[in-house]
Design brief:
The complex is a heterodimer of chains A (446) and B (301).
Chain A (H helix, E strand, L loop, with lengths): L8 H17 L4 H5 L10 E8 L2 H17 L3 E8 L4 H14 L6 E5 H9 L7 H6 L1 H8 L3 H6 L13 E7 L1 E5 H6 L11 H11 L9 E3 L5 H9 L18 H15 L12 H6 L3 E6 L3 H7 L5 E4 L9 E10 L6 H11 L2 H10 L3 E2 L3 H4 L2 H5 L5 H5 L4 E3 L6 H16 L5 H23 L2
Parallel strand pairs in A: 1-2, 1-3, 6-7, 9-11
Antiparallel strand pairs in A: 3-9, 4-9, 4-10, 5-7, 5-8
Helix pairs in contact in A: 3-15, 3-16, 20-21
Chain B lengths: L10 H34 L2 E2 L7 E2 L3 H8 L1 H32 L5 H16 L2 H12 L5 H8 L11 H29 L3 H9 L4 H29 L3 H6 L11 H11 L3 H29 L4
Helix pairs in contact in B: 2-12, 3-7, 3-9, 4-7, 7-9, 9-12, 11-12
The chains are: A alpha/beta (446), B mainly alpha (301).
């Protein structure tokens, strides 16, 4: 009978703590001293991964865990899934509750919207030292596009600290109904089309009355979905450091006025309240929609293949938005080295292939995706997904992301239903957001 | 010398002990799942609470902040409006349906209608919301399409605050009135037929029978429905969350949605607990008032 070789958390901390103290006293860098490589294959342990997403995510992750178990047959991995109904705030709270109640959480998967908050709350550990000493992990990171990798660092950018190994991403791109374009005599749009050209196209595609009514474009009425309208006008809801309101920027006002005009002046978009853009697009009520790759799972499930993608129309810039997500090791992980081995299997090439087949998200590593026949088969211009990485910005995700989203959407609601002007809506939102961001900076000691 | 052993407990005490043992499991459940969370919520409401970093007592600060928070008044206003209309229409429509079904009908027809009216209660909010969102859509919805046939302009069901509240109440009544109907039907069937026969012999008409016999004898059931629907409506969350998410703006946000937002989106558990304590107090007071007033109009015989 094999003896259990896993360390308890206390043993691990005592051992590494004592080692680190000794080595520091000797003037040696801790990172190199901690290098121990992958734990032996006979390691026995219990691990838990806290994960988000639906059945497709769960299936893809199960494949990675299964490959990990081929290497570590004595490690039992529990994949704790949360469908994120409560939003990222609820998700983080549940992780905290699980850690606080003593239940194991070795890895957490998190989207960019919650990464800074988990770092700020001290739930996850920095990974730079582990990456520096592990060639396998370096290989995983090196294949991730720098924009995606740097977005999850704190502070954001190449000089920041890495806490997350990027697993996935999604952008916002225009989805078009190719059949409706053909019927309207429209060619595939110029990839560098402008806001004005977009409106002209949407006007041509807006047809019919009553039950035959079709609108040109379904506005993606949610924080992430609206962000490209700000980015293509060189603005955003918060400042570049994500720590103050930017809603008094004149470009922001121009963007919101444009968005409102799609419904209330040009009449090319239906009311934004009620049915979601994907439902309207799939049911043929709109000729254009928007999203990343995630709606494609719905398109495929509904045998709806008259879809192609086009880059976002530009005003001052061609910048779109992305959101990404990855795995981090928690402060309660019993053995971070074992957790790293699990991350490697849950972000390997087979995981990317499985994710592509699922049709929900884009794998973080372009290499395993762009040449895939399955990926390029549908939509026709699939290369624009990764092509957008050349001019892209992350969705602003300060630690109080949910609060920012709530303040902005709540005030913009009254602009989009034409109760108040864009100026009034943004002024009210700016006042509220300025106070919220001041509170955040105080909370962070910034 | 008396050799008879004296029992350890008197019969009265023994009986009481048996009774306590019988209610012990329920008492345990009540203590763990109801009493403890209430006490803990009260404690948290006086704290700046953080699960991992530790918390500190801040006295009445959270309660003082409630009075400075304009959104609290808004969400309470929304909740009271929803509660008044949802309770009124759920109970009213449920009573009308029950009276309509409480007559000589073939069993098949009666069961069919009962099932139809009760069915919405069995469907999850998440599913029905997708359908209702399609029905309510201002530009592409079925309701406005049919209203348009009669020359009625498109109603902004979900995009204007007042209409959004109307839309929520309609969906809530559609979903929940079947439960009220079922309870009223059970109440109606418990009214002895002799009363009706005597009234008919005395020449009472349908209206007199309904107001002089049916309603008074149904008053305990009506009271029960009003109390439980009021408590449920004051705690409304999912009906609104799935249909409007509290929007547009804050126009349909309920108190519980606000508590949820503060606790799980802004991580301000102390403030959320303080707001929940105010709701707890309001529900308690309103329920006591209902019981007090109920003494005047509820007849148990």
């Amino acid at each position: 009978m094999k003896e259990k070789q896993s360390l308890s958390r206390r043993q691990f901390l005592q051992t590494t703590g004592a080692a680190a103290a000794s080595l520091t006293a000797l003037g040696l860098p801790v990172s190199s001293a901690l290098a121990q490589g992958a734990p032996p294959a006979e390691t026995a342990a219990q691990m838990a991964v806290y994960n988000f997403g639906g059945a497709i995510h769960q299936g893809v992750a199960a494949g990675g865990i299964s490959r990990f178990n081929e290497r570590y047959p004595n490690v039992v991995v529990e994949d704790v899934y949360e469908p994120s109904q409560a939003g990222w705030g609820g998700y983080i709270t549940n992780v905290q509750l699980r850690i606080a109640s003593g239940l194991p959480v070795d890895l957490i998967a998190m989207a960019i919207e919650g990464t800074w908050e988990t770092i700020f709350q001290g739930i996850v550990i920095p990974l730079d030292d582990y990456i520096a000493e592990d060639e396998g992990l370096q290989a995983v990171v090196s294949e991730v596009h720098p924009s995606l990798h740097d977005a999850l660092k704190v502070p954001r950018g190449p000089d920041g600290t890495t806490y997350y190994i990027t697993r996935e991403w999604n952008n916002m791109i225009i989805h078009i109904n190719t059949r409706m374009f053909e019927e309207a005599g429209l060619d595939y749009p110029n990839p560098e089309w402008t806001w004005d050209e977009f409106v002209e196209t949407a006007q041509i595609l807006t047809t019919g009355e009553g039950e035959d009514k079709v609108f040109g474009f379904a506005i993606p009425y949610f924080n992430f979905g609206m962000a490209p309208w700000w980015h293509t006008n060189e603005t955003a809801t918060v400042t570049d450091d994500w720590l103050d309101s930017n809603l008094d920027d004149p470009n922001m006002l121009e963007s919101l006025q444009f968005l409102r005009s799609l419904v209330h002046e040009h009449g090319v978009s239906p009311d934004v309240f009620g049915s979601g853009m994907t439902e309207l697009f799939v049911s043929g009520k709109t000729a254009m929609s928007a999203g990343g790759r995630w709606p494609f799972a719905t398109y495929i499930a509904n045998d709806f293949y008259d879809v192609d993608i086009v880059p976002w129309p530009r005003n001052r810039a061609g910048t779109t938005v992305f959101g990404s997500g990855g795995y981090a090791i928690t402060t309660s992980a019993a053995d971070p080295y074992l957790a790293i081995e699990l991350i490697k299997d849950m972000t390997d090439h087979q995981t990317d292939v499985d994710a592509i087949a699922g049709g929900t998200y884009l794998p973080a590593r372009e290499g395993s995706t762009v040449d895939s026949e399955e990926f390029n088969a549908f939509p026709e211009h699939a290369h624009y997904f990764f092509g957008s990485l050349d001019d892209i910005k992350p969705i602003p995700s300060p630690p109080n992301f949910a609060e920012v989203e709530n303040i902005f959407t709540r005030n913009v609601d009254n602009v989009m239903n034409d109760s108040i002007s864009a100026e009034e809506g943004l002024a009210a939102a700016h006042e509220e957001l300025t106070e919220a961001m001041a509170n955040l900076r105080e909370r962070m000691g910034a | 010398m008396n050799l008879t052993r004296q029992p350890l407990l008197s019969p009265k005490r023994s009986e009481a002990l048996t009774a306590y043992l019988f209610i012990l499991p329920t008492l345990f459940g009540f203590a763990v799942f109801i009493l403890y969370p209430i006490v803990e919520s009260i404690r948290i409401s006086f704290m700046d609470f953080n699960i991992l970093r530790g918390s500190e007592y801040i006295g009445l600060e959270n309660y003082i902040d409630i009075f400075k928070d304009k959104r609290v008044a808004t969400v309470y206003g929304n909740t009271f409006v929803f509660t008044f209309f949802a309770v009124f229409f759920n109970a009213g429509v449920g009573l009308l349906l029950a009276v309509a079904l409480n007559r000589r009908l073939p069993n098949f027809i009666r069961n069919l209608y009962r099932s139809i009216f009760f069915f919405p209660l069995l469907v999850a909010h998440t599913y029905i919301a997708v359908i209702w969102q399609f029905l309510y859509h201002r530009d592409l919805g079925v309701l406005n399409y049919y209203l348009g046939i009669f020359g009625i302009a498109a109603i902004p069901w979900l995009s204007q605050g007042n209409w959004a509240m109307v839309a929520i109440i309609i969906m809530d009544v559609w979903k929940n009135t079947g439960f009220a109907m079922l309870v009223f039907l059970a109440g109606l069937q418990n009214i002895p037929t002799e009363y009706y026969e005597s009234a008919q012999l005395d020449g009472a008409n349908g209206r007199q029978i309904f107001f002089r016999i049916t309603l008074p004898l149904l008053s305990p059931t009506i009271f029960f429905i009003l109390v439980i629907f009021m408590i449920g409506a004051l705690q409304v969350f999912d009906t609104i969350q799935v249909l409007t998410r509290g929007g547009p703006g804050d126009s349909t946000r309920s108190v519980v949605m606000y508590i949820y937002e503060k606790a799980f989106q802004r991580f301000d558990l102390g403030y959320a607990a303080a707001v929940s304590m105010t709701l707890f107090a309001i529900i308690l007071v309103l329920t006591l008032i209902q019981f007090r007033i109920g003494r005047r109009w509820v007849h148990y015989e």
